[in-house]
Amino acid sequence: MENVNLENIIKSFFLGIFMGIILQFYDNADGLFSYKVLTVLASGSIGFFIGFITEWLTSILPISMANARMYFFINNLIALLVTTFIMAALLMMTSSEMKKEQQFMPILLIVLGIICIANLVDYMMYRRAQAKLKTFKEIIKDK
To answer: Is the pTM of this model over 0.70?
Structure first.
């Protein structure tokens, strides 16, 4: 539990809120504003839960897989699998009137696409920070 990255869990909460907002625009259903706000907050909570499970599963991985590229790839894969499972479970639990594949698949693809893009951006920011750190170390070493 000490290896769980809390920063990523918090990022998952805000990513869930972002996805909730995007899906509100995708759906265009007429509803009270308060219901839409509650839906966005619920998606943030689901994102938090998904982030927690993803980080917990990632923290169990053996240390031998500690290279950054592999970590980000496995983390993304776990996030995609956990998200797909949770979204399918929520669909089944709520007995949604959503026609199974015609309406569920586009929403699932939007969510999984956003997760992949977010993980790719996170990896690029990590690589950028590592490059800046390397440059900074070289500058300090030269002085």
So the answer is: yes
51 closest CA partner among 7, 12, 90: 12
What is the C-alpha to C-alpha distance for residues 37 and 23, in angstroms, rounded to an integer?
12
Kindly report, residue by residue over 10-35, the tens digit of the pLDDT.
999 999 999 888 888 877 777 788 88
49 inside domain: yes
User: How many angstroms separate the CA atoms of 55 and 47, rounded?
Assistant: 12
Distance, CA of 63 to CA of 137 (rounded, Å):
26
CA 27 to CA 128: how far, in whole Å? 36
Q: Is residue 1 part of a domain?
A: no
Q: Decide: 31 and 61 in contact? Cβ < 8 Å.
A: no
